[in-house]
Amino acid sequence: MKIALITGVNGQDGSYLAELLLDKNYDVWGVVRRASDINTKRIDYLYTNKKLFIRYGDMTDSVNLVNILYEIKSTYPDMDRLEIYNLAAMSHVKVSFDMPEYTANADGTGVLRLLEAVRSTGLMEVTRFYQAATSELYGLVQEVPQKETTPFYPRSPYGVAKLYGYWITKNYRESYDMFAANGILFNHESPRRGPTFVTRKVTRGLNMIMTGERDRLVMGNIDAKRDWGHAKDYVEGMWRILQADTPQDYVLSTNEFHSVREFIEKAFALRGFNIKWKGDGIDEIGYDANTDRDLIFISDRYFRPAEVEELLGDSTKARTELGWKPQYSFDQLVKEMVDHDCPVNNAD
Fold first, then answer.
1. Which among 36, 139, 165, 209 is most buried, taking Cβ atoms within 10 Å?
2. Which of 7, 103, 127, 134 is catalytic?
3. pLDDT digit string (tens) for 210-225?
4. Which of 85, 138, 158, 328 is catalytic?
5. Rounded Cα distance, 46 and 49, in Å
6. What topology does CATH give the domain 198-225+259-308+329-347?
7. Which is the catalytic residue, given 26, 103, 130, 136?
8. What is the Cα–Cα distance from 90 to 132, expressed in whole angstroms?
């Protein structure tokens, strides 16, 4: 029997990963952080699947994590393999500057709590552990492109917390001979991406302009460049990392990058706008060349205290050793997100 535990199962990656593993006939245990509002909409459609088991949990509560693992252990007394995918995190980089202590607790020390929970429940021998690392580890990049051997230089509380998670995972692998691996994933998006992330901000903002709800889209650093892929491709990469013969750390990336400016231009073009630019710096404005209507404005409110200007991955190792490669192009990703957030009928 195939068994998996996914923390953060109700997030973008968690929902796609649950879907993938259920299709592969896993029993999937998902951990959801309790909130007063319903926060499981990404996985609601999976609830009828009898192989999905949802539990409340939090990366800041070690007793809770231990109890969940003991429940899994008692449910499968003859279990010979448990795959744990740690995807839970406070994952918004800009917000991490406002909540640095919580971010460190959940994204950094939380990884330690989960690894220790595996140890204390006697599950080390059967566990394969995946830690969701991030391209934000590279921050102020030391070389282009970034690969597994590139030095880290995080530029946010989120990146620093994730750096601890990365190294404690590696430490448990080397100290206890545990199958523990990091996936250093570059930016990956989808229609399930949180609405406050920059790509969804663009596609949702486009829809609000189309429907007349708003007359403008206000952005931060539109010249930041990111290596953008589709979350569906990246969760398959996570799974492949835990199917390897030995635990290693892998970069997952498309190996090409695009600016926020380009994302805006392509998204708006799909709904008939021809975005051109005028002005400089904070006074730059994006306008529709078809109508001369000013649509895109810049505000320093949305700049980070320490910017990460460009991230470009080199996923040669994953492509060579795992046989992984992304299936979605940048243009396909933009179109899928625009079609979801700004249906064609809204453009009529």
1. 165
2. 134
3. 999 999 999 999 999 9
4. 158
5. 6
6. UDP-galactose 4-epimerase; domain 1 (3.90.25)
7. 136
8. 12
